[in-house]
Design a protein that fits this description.
The protein is an alpha/beta fold. It folds into 2 domains: about 5-140; about 145-315, Rossmann fold. The protein is about 35% helix and about 20% strand. The protein has 12 helices and 13 strands. Helix 2 (about 30-45) crosses helix 4. The two termini are about 45 Å apart.
Length: about 325
Amino acid sequence: MGNRAIAKRGGVANPWTGRIIRAWHSTLEGFFECGRLLAKAKDDLDHGEFLAMVERDLPFGPRYAQMLMRVAEDPRLTNANHASHLPPSITSLYLLSRLDDLTFRRALSRGDISAEMERADAALLLSKTKRLAGQKAAAEQEVSGRVQLWSADPPWPTSYGRPYKTLPLDRIKNLRLAPNGKASSDLKHPSVAEASAQTAAIGMWAVDELLAEAEATLAAWGFGLVGRVIWDKGSHSRPGRATLMQHEFLLLGTRGAAVPVWKPRSVVTISKAGLRDSEKPEEFRAMLVKMFPLFVNRCELFARRRVEKWTPWGNQVPAE
């Protein structure tokens, strides 16, 4: 460690402990300096040594240390022009650091962010931010009438348990796409057929015991069945009615003049290791794009996450 000053505590030496303790006090600049020193110590110390230092040598724990570092790296909080408006509470500052820029600026200009504000006030601002983000995500799920390529993984009501809510077959078959990502029967919301382009394609996941029902749903959505791809998971994942199941079907459908420019093999073996329950390998989404590369308006039905260049629709889509 060269000629750097060494702080000792509990028989363990490093150059950061004493400096961090000296900087730690309940003032804004103290919080910022402490957070900056913690970040430098984290970069400098060997793996595991930083956490050991926090737990053993400092007057606060790892959670508090994380808050100090987050606050210290937020340029909105360290801006000297904002100092007189900020509360001298690390918890409140941490909550403010989680606000988006627009909410932060508006709250600052209205006086909602002030030196007198309490933790509950900061928590209320953050909850409003999360609620607005959720509303924005729901609004973005309004599906246009020009979708060219669909990917769908419906929550089929199988005979075996699922770790999520399923839908009755008639709700899936007669699905209408409400802008909040929930299945609707209201005629004011478009059906999949109504939301599709005149020429379009779809990949719909189906399970063995409901294969006939899935193919009927594909037809009800306005698509003709043109093929089935079997995902072989490499090992059985659950018992079926008469066999040990290790596969699922990806039903391929088209409408209008849609013709694939590339054809995949009918059986694709990809291990399910590392995938969450019901999660599908990325290779299948890429397969659909490779089959229909010119269909750039894409939508994933019953999505559970966001994927670049796909519009997500579903009530499990996280806010951005």
